[in-house]
Amino acid sequence: MRFGSPGCRPRGLLAGTGSGVARSALGVMISVLLIAFSGAYADTHAQGTWTTDTQQSPASPPPGSDTVPGVAPFGGMTTVVPRGLQDDALAKADPRSALVTLEAFLTSDNDLANRRAIDRGLVWRVFALGGEGQGTKLVATRRDPTPTIKLPSGKYAINAAFGRAYLTHIVEVRGGERKREPFILNAGGLRVIVDVAGGGRVPKGKARYDIYSDERDQSGARRRILTNVRPGLITRLNSGIYHIVSRLGDANALVSAEVAVESGKLTEAVVSHEAAKVTFKLVQTAAGEAIADTQWIIMTRAGDIVMETAGAVPTHLLAPGEYSVSARWGGKLFTRTFDVKSGDTVEVEVMMN
Predict the structure, then answer these.
(1) Per-10-residue mean pLDDT for the chain, 353 residues long?
(2) Residue 305 sits in a domain of what CATH number?
(3) What is the CATH number of the domain that holds 6?
(4) Is residue 76 part of a domain?
(5) Using an 8 Å Cβ cutoff, are 187 and 237 in contact?
(6) Domain boundaries, position 161
(7) CA–CA separation, 44 vs 14, rounded Å?
(8) Looking at the structure, do residues 193 and 253 belong to the same domain, yes or no?
(9) Residue 128, strand partner residues
(10) Read out DSSP for 36-59?
(11) Contact present, 98 and 179 (Cβ < 8 Å)
């Protein structure tokens, strides 16, 4: 996917030749999503069959409550059963308990016998469901790809988390039985790459993006799924439509659009920002020395505040457009207007007169 800034023209649809991270013998499948957002455009392609043999993004389950399994399955205190102790427990026959083997798959495309289970990055959480008014209790957390867990007879909510993709099953077990519980996550991967329109270089550490749900609540707000993600990492998500907001720098260089994550595939989105690098100086004479301890307010020509900053020579990335800047020093205010185009690197001097 390529996100551009207002005024850009859509490029030709991308044609992929295969993914470096997905090496399936099934070949390469390509899908292209082109969605305009305030004049922006996006080129999206899903590459091959996505497996777990990819670069892993740090996975931290979203906050939630351990009392509402299936709705907010994450959070609460976790109880990790050491492998040695678990093996000893499983070796003992107990007519009051059941042995439940858990396994997870990305997709349901193939027959169960030929399907490849996810072999890394899984977190399993088992919640015991009490009676009415008794709530739930987290009884076990496992990080094995295919754990076998010994559970007393009863009803449980079992959650499988794979990055930000997750699924919860309600399972009832009886003493003495052995059962296998497969989870079909229908998950895919999203990788966002950021560049600057016209071939400009992205300053190191200046690009981040947030991921939001496609749906809106009654007030029109989207649910934020992940924030401050570094470009280039793969984020595991349930298949579906997502809204991303990319930020370049700390001012108003933003690009927003929607992306489609396909089950079992890696979707790559290339976000193209239009921005100018602007440095501010308060001087007594043209090309003079910058005055220290200056406070700055950057505004659009319409008077909307873009940001407030301070320093002798602050530098920020701004979206193309017309601006005014005010410098406050010694109880006095000095103002200047200016405009910038994408790709500019300019120094704006504000004179003390």
Answers:
(1) 45 31 30 30 50 37 36 31 44 75 85 72 94 81 96 95 96 93 95 84 89 91 94 95 95 94 93 94 94 96 95 96 96 96 93 89
(2) 2.60.40.10
(3) 2.60.40
(4) no
(5) yes
(6) 83-183
(7) 8
(8) yes
(9) 137, 156
(10) -BTTB---EEEES---S-SPPPP-
(11) yes
Instruction: Copy the structure tokens of residue 42.
Output: 């996006």
Q: Which pair of tokens denotes residue 47?
A: 């590459």
Flag whether 54 is in a domain: no
Angle at alpha carbon of residue 225, lines to 102 and 247, rounded to 5°: 140
pLDDT of residue 145: 95
CA-wise closest residue to 322 among 306, 345, 343, 334: 306
Neighbouring C-beta atoms of residue 287, cutoff 10 Å: 8
Which DSSP helix (H) or strand (E) runs through 91? Answer: helix 83-91
**H or E stretch at 87:** helix 83-91
Are 19 and 48 spatial neighbours (Cβ–Cβ below 8 Å)? yes
Out of 118, 149, 183, pick the residue that ends a domain.
183
Residue 335: its pLDDT value, please? 96
DSSP assignment, residue 312?
Answer: S
Question: Residues with Cβ < 8 Å from 219, sequence gap 6 or more?
Answer: none
- Assess whether 141 and 209 both reside in one domain: no
The token duo for 287 is 């090309």
How far is Cα 210 from Cα 54, in angstroms, rounded to an integer? Answer: 21
Question: 């000095």: which residue's tokens?
Answer: 334
User: Which residue's entry shows tokens 């320093």?
Assistant: 311
C-alpha 184/C-alpha 117 separation (Å) is 10
Are 140 and 81 in contact by the 8 Å Cβ rule? The answer is yes
- What angle is formed at CA 92 by the lines to CA 89 and CA 97, rounded to 5 degrees? 80
Strand partners, 322: 339
- Report how far apart, in Å, the C-alpha atoms of 36 and of each of 7, 39, 46, 206 are: 11, 6, 19, 24
Please tell me whether residues 94 and 174 are part of one structural domain.
Answer: yes
Phi then psi for residue 113, to 5 deg, are -65, -30
Tokens of 179: 């059962």
Q: Which helix (H) or strand (E) holds 85?
A: helix 83-91
Q: Is residue 72 situated within a structural domain?
A: no
| pLDDT score of 23 | 32
